[in-house]
Amino acid sequence: MQVPQFPECQHLLVTALSEKTDQELVSLFQMHPTQGKYFVALFCRYSADIYTLIQKDVRSPVQGEYLFSMVWKQIHHELQHLDV
After folding, report:
1. What torsion do the CA atoms of 15, 7, 78, 54 make, to the nearest 10 degrees?
2. pLDDT grade, residue 84 (50/70/90)?
3. pLDDT tens by residue, 10-26
4. Angle between helix 37-56 and 22-31 (nearest 10)
5. For the chain, counts of helices (H) and of strands (E)
6. Nearest alpha-carbon partner for 37 in 19, 14, 15, 21
7. pLDDT at residue 59 in the model
8. DSSP label at 20?
9. pTM beyond 0.90, yes or no
10. For the residues 59-68, what does the mean pLDDT come to?
11. What 3-state class would DSSP assign to 58?
12. Please, which residues have CB within 8 angstroms of residue 27's CB and are 6 or more apart in sequence?
């Protein structure tokens, strides 16, 4: 299984946030919901781990890709309302 690479993770706007904590990124995401860089920074930080966990328990790579996208959709929704 090969974890996909996302070029967005190498963008200067995202790499500049690498020193921020998860809590800071979530707070910034909530304060500035139209600026995707905060969510993308969190995505880049955890996408490989989540992808690996999902792919271990699915029947097909296509099912894994679908679940991966649905998990991140749910994370995006939940982070908007998370009390940090």
Report:
1. -120
2. confident
3. 999 999 999 999 999 99
4. 120
5. 4, 0
6. 14
7. 92
8. S
9. yes
10. 94
11. coil
12. 84
Instruction: Name the residue with tokens 């029947």.
Output: 59
Tokens of 18: 């690498």
List the structure tokens of 82. Answer: 């998370």
- Residue-wise pLDDT for 28-57, tens only, equals 999 999 999 999 999 999 999 999 999 998
Does the pLDDT of residue 1 top 80, yes or no?
Answer: no
Q: In this structure, which amino acid lies at residue 14?
A: V
The two three-digit tokens of residue 69, written as one number = 């996208």
Coil, helix or strand for 65?
A: helix
Distances (CA, A) of 81 to 22, 27, 42, 55: 15, 10, 16, 28
